[in-house]
Write a structure and sequence with these properties.
mainly beta, 11-stranded mixed β-sheet, 4-stranded antiparallel β-sheet, 19 strands
Length: about 350
């Protein structure tokens, strides 16, 4: 496949004005001059590996991987952004030109991800207050060219996006040589300090481990993974598309023993209900990666004019699909349940 990296924000999912808080407060200033050139050099170097390559023979997930998900208040909020398969992947450098928004949220509010181009790990911030912490990142759109209908179908089958193939046909799009924009929406939940009496979030008055951030595609934990009532239980997670529940969508869950980053984990599949909710089994002392993918046409999908426009875009090597990838990572306490 041919990969192209698009630093513009003109396509679906890349418009700064469309972002809801906290993204407006956490926008990153794009580089200029030598900084932009350096960013491009690093980006192209990473492209030779797996950065920005979500859809090969098998799809690649993108997630935030905290170094210490649960730790005392003195521990910094340090985390890598990773891309890979089966909860095992390569860490990526901080490239502001490739990021739409990124930041940290705690009970005192939100702050941008203050990193320098090329920094690794991608997140490194001081812990300010006890309780839940959220790291988030949304990438700018990047471009992928599909050179094989079979590969495209294999990806759709893996992510259970069967309706996309039928819609592709109805839109009169070619079997190969068409392009797609993709956007990542990643979140990680961390905990600092003691488990008892956590501070409340300023806008809710409650101490949730997670909250709705306004990502276009977003996974939100409805239950607190850090304070399980038993060593094993069920955790509810809601999938949102443009702020509304997304039903009948495949949600993949990867799990491994806490801290075992070299160990591969095969996904379990769940389907969101009418409220966009999946209930997943969790147990103490494990890392979890929850992942979901949603695709939308780059242009309206109905009417002859829309079909003709889409076909013209495909011929002109412009994107005809936009895929959105949501991930949520968290770790359950080893001592949960007592």
């Amino acid at each position: 496949m041919r990969l192209h990296h698009d630093m513009s924000s003109s396509c679906t999912g890349g418009d700064d004005k469309a972002l809801q808080p906290p993204f407006q407060a956490a926008r990153q200033t794009r580089g200029h001059g030598a900084g932009r050139l350096l960013a491009l050099m690093i980006l192209l170097g990473a492209q030779a590996g797996v950065f920005g390559h979500p859809q090969a023979a098998s799809a690649h997930e993108y997630w935030i991987d905290p170094v210490q998900p649960i730790a005392p208040l003195t521990a910094r909020l340090t985390a890598d952004a990773r891309v890979g398969q089966f909860f095992n992947g390569d860490s990526l450098p901080w490239l502001p030109d490739a990021v739409q928004a990124a930041g940290v949220i705690d009970a005192m509010g939100r702050r941008p991800n203050a990193r320098i181009i090329g920094d690794m790990p991608m997140f490194d911030a001081a812990s300010r207050v006890e309780g839940a912490q959220i790291l988030f990142l949304q990438t700018r759109p990047e471009t992928l060219t599909w050179d094989s209908w079979e590969k495209f179908l294999a990806f759709l089958e893996e992510k259970k996006l069967h309706a996309v193939a039928e819609l592709h046909r109805r839109r009169g799009l070619p079997d190969s040589g068409f392009t797609e924009h993709y956007v990542r929406h990643a979140k990680a939940l961390l905990w600092r300090g003691h488990a008892a009496s956590p501070p409340t979030m300023p806008d809710t008055g409650k101490p949730p481990a997670d909250r709705v951030l306004g990502l276009k595609l977003e996974l939100v934990a409805l239950d607190d993974p850090f304070n399980l009532p038993r060593r094993k239980g069920m955790l509810r997670i809601r999938l949102l598309w443009q702020g509304q529940p997304l039903a009948k969508t495949d949600v993949q869950v990867f799990s491994r023993p806490a801290g075992q980053r070299g160990e591969e984990a095969r996904p379990r599949h769940f389907t969101s209900n009418v409220e966009g909710i999946v209930s997943i089994p969790v147990e103490a002392g494990r890392d979890y990666l929850v992942n979901a993918v949603h695709m939308e046409p780059a242009l309206p999908s109905s009417g002859k004019a829309a079909g003709k426009a889409a076909a013209e875009r495909a011929v002109n090597d412009m994107p005809v699909w936009v895929s959105h990838w949501a991930s949520l990572t968290f770790t359950t306490r080893t001592g949960s349940g007592h």
